[in-house]
Specification:
A two-stranded antiparallel sheet has the order 1-2. The protein contains eleven helices and two strands; from the N terminus they run ααββααααααααα. Helices cover 76% and strands 3% of the residues. The two termini are 25 Å apart. It has a domain of 165 residues. It is globular. By secondary structure, the chain is mainly alpha-helical.
Length: 246
């Protein structure tokens, strides 16, 4: 049973998040660029998602017209997050990173991860309809469900329960962390706004860079939160987490 006294350490999570990306930029930024950045930019371009003019610019992420585009991006996003979660757990545990191994383990878990994403989406979406706050609470409870599934080989419901157990007592700190990540994404958005006013080409390039960085930060951040929660609440050594993938 998790120790409810343990609290997440914001500075350590941030150090771990940016640390793993800086140590392995080719893996984190490269994969994010190929799996999320390029497909997202191509889909937006093909569907007329970029527009600019004297009155400003607009970025459309509505792929409902094709349906397939949204589904493809969702699957790619799940694959990216799972791959980088494995990479983060290995790095923080002092294990060498193998890109092929990280991708392989993510692919093996793809179907359960899709199921987890659907359940989380439905639950959080319904909670947001109930005056927003319940949805936010559910999101904070389930934020580490994906690394739980990857690292502890649990099913969908067990992963959600385990995530709720780990995040108990740390939701406020996790919210602060998520707000920090949101602020970073907002700063990137300002760059998109500035360069978007210069023309469609600039907008496409900056949006590509923004999607790439955001994808890497999201995956590394969630995995780092999971590692810190287990370290603080259960005294789990990071090397023990990485041994799961040995």
């Amino acid at each position: 049973m998790a120790d409810a006294v343990g609290k997440i350490d914001i500075s350590r999570v941030l150090n771990n998040t940016f640390g793993v990306i800086m140590r392995h930029p080719a893996i984190y930024l490269g994969l994010s660029f190929l799996i999320i950045g390029v497909p997202n930019a191509l889909l937006q371009t093909m569907q007329g998602g970029y527009s600019s003019g004297p009155d400003g610019f607009a970025v459309s992420t509505n792929y409902s017209a094709q349906g397939f585009g949204f589904l493809a991006l969702m699957l790619l996003s799940i694959l990216l997050q799972a791959t980088l979660i494995v990479a983060t757990l290995n790095d923080l545990g002092g294990k060498p990173l193998s890109l092929g191994d990280c991708v392989s383990r993510a692919v093996k878990k793809l179907l359960p991860l899709i199921g987890l994403g659907i359940v989380m989406g439905l639950g959080i979406g319904f909670g947001l309809l109930l005056l927003i706050v319940p949805g936010i609470i559910l999101y904070l409870m389930w934020v580490v469900a994906t690394p739980v599934m990857m690292a502890e080989d649990r099913g969908i419901i067990d992963s959600l329960k385990r995530s709720a157990d780990l995040t108990s007592g740390s939701k406020r700190m996790i919210l602060v962390l998520l707000l920090i990540f949101f602020a970073l994404a907002f700063v990137f958005g300002l760059f998109v706004a500035f360069f978007g006013s210069l023309g469609t080409v600039f907008l496409g390039i900056i949006t590509l860079v923004s999607n790439t960085i955001t994808g890497a930060l999201q995956a590394a951040g969630v995995a780092s939160i999971y590692v810190d929660l287990r370290t603080e609440k259960e005294g789990t050594d990071t090397s023990a987490l990485a041994d799961i993938f040995a």
